[in-house]
Write a structure and sequence with these properties.
Two copies of one chain form a homodimer. By secondary structure, chain A is of the alpha+beta class. Chain A has two domains: about 120 residues, Aminotransferase class 4, branched-chain amino acid transferase, N-terminal domain (D-amino Acid Aminotransferase, Chain A, domain 1); about 160 residues, D-amino Acid Aminotransferase, subunit A, domain 2 (D-amino Acid Aminotransferase, Chain A, domain 2, Alpha-Beta Barrel). In chain A, the strands form two sheets. In chain A, strands 8, 9, 10, 11, 12, 13, 14, 15 and 16 form a nine-stranded mixed β-sheet that branches. A six-stranded antiparallel β-sheet of chain A has the order 2-1-7-6-4-5. In chain A, helix 6 crosses helix 8. The relative contact order of chain A is 0.15. Strand 3 of chain A pairs antiparallel with strand 3 of chain B.
Chain lengths: ~290, ~290
């Protein structure tokens, strides 16, 4: 039985409930973050705290907790649940005003809802999936236009994951106007020679915390980084492909729509970036 | 204190809670319906029940309740809360699997969540807003691509309502590729002479239950109905404009982006359609 955090209290997970009037439940009016835990420490907590604030600002939602207090809650949950490797999920919603209305509730009388829980994932860093690489399919990207705000409007990404599963794949890359936007819960990359290509930041994609770190490490390792759109056809013909996310770190993609990428096995760049990322993240984790 | 219905039980509204792991809360993985109550009876219950099933089917979600039992819950909530005029809100989510995962939970072990509550709105039929007409602004439509599925992904419609409020208007009409799709929680129409123009059904708009009824009544009243796209410029120059929804019925729009529509007061067609709709709905209510 996990201990979770809800609105200022630590409690058993099966007692953690929110009102049916919570705007997270009725209107998807909430944002989230997922922070990885390695060696019992938090990976890039600062990055996630900053992005949380950015998401809240974009939705004119009040932040119910200071960065210092948020760090303390993360650490306490890690301690209480004995997490060595895994994730901490955080969600903030506009709260439960006691009825349903499209108009935002008055923030003076309706406090945001804040919930955090852990996910224990022993072996996350040494994932066999990273050795093998993953298979993706391509699907149309029909999500809303502000994917840079990390909202809980995750129905389509969830449907995409199911489409992938039914097709015998591990995930889906989404395509809009002919170009890959990103994976269902990760940023997408291809490799051509010494060059890493990934879509530039905009409202079209999540501003990945792991993306920022990996691109920095890639440049430090003398790799060239090109931020531009790419098609799924270009991806199929690339030397390598991979994804990044807070919970998968760097993960090679070895097949796209049934077509082998490169040799159809993890190449040279993605595994090396994963190694660097894990090493640096462990060093910097708090 | 309202009595609400949650997963088979009637309970006080302040005791109606769902798990933090409910997919409605974590992933907007839920659908809803709003049925109006007039004279203590349900308006077009059948239409809402059919659309609920359509939404559930589109998301491969199990329907947790038969149509007969659902009708009984609606009626019991009307009785318990003494509703003469108002709405009944219904939401079904994919349930609470006890953890967070993009992959759908096994429907054999995770039951859907079903919740219903009433909203008491005395005077709904004789709304002063219908006498005065409403003002709308136009905003970009950035919602996801399956607006025909009535999901709880209502963050953008909610933001749109706030943009309207800040602009001193009552609602927003959304524009995609140069054409009006619909209002934030209603279908949009313009009137030119004896002709009613409204966007045709597709994945781009909600398949309004009230829309279907109003178009039928309009044709029965010898009005011409043209289902096609229209621009916001065409709407500003129209003789009349109006919206329909289950909770506003037919409501004249008298101003668009600060420009008066027609004489800037409710015209002839929208009030007449409202009258017919209310009369017929009351007659057919169950």
């Amino acid at each position: 039985m996990r201990t979770v955090y809800l609105n200022g209290e630590y409690m058993p997970e099966n007692e953690a409930n929110v009102s049916i009037f919570d705007r997270g439940f009725l209107m998807a009016d909430g944002v989230y973050e997922v922070t990885s835990v390695l060696g019992g420490k938090l990976v890039d907590f600062e990055g996630h705290a900053v992005r949380l604030q950015r998401s809240l600002d974009a939705l004119e939602m009040r932040n119910p907790i200071s960065k210092e207090a948020l760090l303390e809650v993360h650490r306490e949950l890690v301690r209480l649940n004995g997490i060595d490797e895994g994730m901490i999920y955080l969600q903030v919603t506009r709260g439960a005003p006691g009825d349903r209305d499209f108009v935002f509730p008055d923030p003076e009388t309706t406090a945001p809802t804040i919930v955090l829980f852990t996910q224990d994932k022993p072996g996350l860093a040494n994932s066999p999936a990273a050795q093998k690489g993953m298979k993706v399919i391509s699907i149309e990207d029909i999500r809303w236009g502000r994917r840079d705000i990390k909202t809980v409007q995750l129905l389509y990404p969830s449907m995409g994951k199911m489409m992938a599963k039914k097709a015998g794949a591990d995930d889906a890359w989404m395509i809009e106007d002919g170009y890959v936007t990103e994976g269902t819960s990760n940023n997408a990359y291809i490799v051509k020679g010494n060059k890493i290509v990934t879509r530039a930041l905009s409202n079209d994609i999540l501003h990945g915390i792991t993306r920022a770190a990996v691109l920095r490490f890639a440049q430090e390792a003398q790799m060239e980084v090109e931020e531009r759109n790419f098609t799924i056809e270009e991806a199929k013909k690339a030397d390598e492909a991979f994804i990044t996310s807070a919970s998968t770190f760097v993960m090679p993609v070895v097949e796209i729509d049934g077509v082998a990428v490169g040799e159809g096995v993890p190449g040279r760049v993605a595994p090396r970036l994963r190694e660097i990322y894990l090493e640096e993240s462990l060093k910097a984790a708090i």
